[in-house]
Write a structure and sequence with these properties.
mainly beta; Porin; eight-stranded antiparallel β-barrel; two-stranded antiparallel ribbon
């Protein structure tokens, strides 16, 4: 992931040296449909789709180097997790994350129609878990900066942005949700688990400012 971050930064520096840069910012919310490849003792556990719309907020800075290529970065807060079911038992868990993405954009940037892809580092803030048996809530708790989960979650993502700001994205987390070294009563309770998350999202990516009409792209790009 560090190599990909570095490559995107070097690409941005090169393009900046070759062209006038159009800069603007956008704000975004997301509807997230999350899943997980969740296994216990190598046995697959059912993980139905988890839908969330709160709290997902992002502010992003865009750097368009030509009509067809650009980068964006920024910051976002998201509620991401997954649900598992086994018999009459269901567990819902999630983290709030602060994330910093870095992405390449390719397409018709003047019309906001482009493909994008990149990487993001997210930092866990608050873990919450709920236990249901026969659809009745039995227990719940939440912990700030919990050791149960990995505090840093790198991910890779791809997506498409359409005219008007409608945005669709697929994201895959590169690290397990749970921290395998976490202990409870001197037992590593997640040591025999796999918890690889991924999600699909839809969003509206709305501009906070417009292009400067006096700025022109370098025709060589």
């Amino acid at each position: 992931m560090r190599k990909l971050y570095t490559s995107l930064l070097l690409l941005g520096a090169f393009l900046t040296s070759q062209a006038q840069v159009k800069k603007y910012s956008t704000s975004s919310g997301e509807l997230i449909f999350s899943f997980a490849d969740y296994k216990i003792n190598n046995e697959q556990v059912n993980t139905p789709v988890r839908f969330t719309c709160f709290l997902h907020l992002g502010v992003f800075e865009h750097f368009d180097f030509s009509k067809n290529i650009g980068l964006y970065t920024g910051g976002a807060i998201r509620n991401v997790g997954f649900t598992s079911t086994s018999g009459d038992t269901m567990i819902k868990r999630r983290n709030y994350y602060i994330g910093v993405p870095l992405a390449l954009k390719i397409g018709n940037l003047a019309e906001d129609t482009y493909l994008f892809g990149g990487v993001e580092g997210e930092f866990a803030l608050n873990y919450k878990e709920k236990l249901f048996v026969n659809e009745e809530k039995i227990n719940k708790f939440n912990v700030w900066f919990s050791d149960r989960t990995n505090s840093f979650m790198p991910s890779a993502f791809i997506g498409v942005n359409l005219k008007g700001g409608f945005n669709m994205k697929f994201k895959y987390y590169l690290t397990d949700f749970y921290n395998k070294n976490f202990t409870a009563n001197n037992v590593k309770i997640y040591d025999n688990t796999k918890s690889q998350m991924f999600y699909f999202s839809v969003a509206m990516n709305l501009r906070n400012s417009t292009y400067s009409s006096k700025t022109t792209y370098n025709k060589g790009l």
